[in-house]
């Protein structure tokens, strides 16, 4: 039973399109996150939500809009996709005692 | 702000060699420290953690000790295996209430040769 699951695993799309990535956790955590991993494997936080409330927004372009319908779900919607958005996006949940990551969504913008 | 500095890779070792991957950090307060591992084509898995000074995290033969005096959390393993080939990330967690998040190092790619 997957703890943090995100879909899709792969996403190839054209520039200018709008796409969404979904994330669900069954660990009962209050806080969920989106991280971006670039081509050099560097990981950087994008957003965090605590119990459906936006807590962290790390200077991400407003084309990226997270949405949390409940504390077990945190989706990421991206408008007007650009080539530079190509990356692996990881969802995570947890706290300072431990964070659990999803398996990632590889987004390729062509 | 918080930051994590890891030794740059890639690191290539022979099977059964001793492994050290250095990690130092800069943080306000008393962060928790983590090592995550990413196997090829997979997501991040928690390898070990330490939540306070002098704590030692250990898992699968890997160890790291939280050294406040040197602000370090070096990863060690006495005898590596081919299956340990992966990218290893050192990370710290800001304990500030309302700002909990992981700050990662740049990752170290480890390749073990049979």
Q: Please state the CA-atom Rg of chain B, rounded to the nearest Å.
A: 14 Å
The low-confidence parts of chain A are none
Distance between the termini of chain A: 34 Å
The largest β sheet of chain B comes out as: 6 strands, mixed
- Give the amount of beta strand of chain B, in percent: over 45%
Low-confidence stretches of chain B: none
Number of helices of chain A: 0
- Give the overall shape of chain B: globular
- Number of DSSP helices of chain B? 0
Q: Report the structural category of chain A.
A: mainly beta
Query: What would the average pLDDT of chain B be, to the nearest integer?
Result: 93
Proportion in β-strands of chain A: over 45%
**Biggest sheet character of chain A:** 7 strands, mixed
Characterization of this structure:
The complex is a heterodimer of chains A (110) and B (114). In chain A, the strands form two sheets. In chain A, strands 2, 4, 5, 6, 9, 10 and 11 form a seven-stranded mixed β-sheet that branches. Chain A is 0% helix and 60% strand. Chain A has no helices and eleven strands. Chain A is mainly beta and 110 residues long. With 114 residues, chain B is mainly beta. Chain B is 0% helix and 50% strand. Chain B has strands at residues 3-6, 11-14, 19-21, 23-26, 32-38, 44-50, 56-59, 62-65, 75-77, 86-93, 102-104, 108-113. In chain B, the strands form three sheets. In chain B, strands 2, 5, 6, 10, 11 and 12 form a six-stranded mixed β-sheet that branches. Chain B has a four-stranded antiparallel β-sheet with strand order 3-9-8-7, with no helix packed on it. The N and C termini of chain B lie far apart (41 Å). The chains are: A mainly beta (110), B mainly beta (114). The interface between A and B is medium-sized, with 25 and 27 residues.
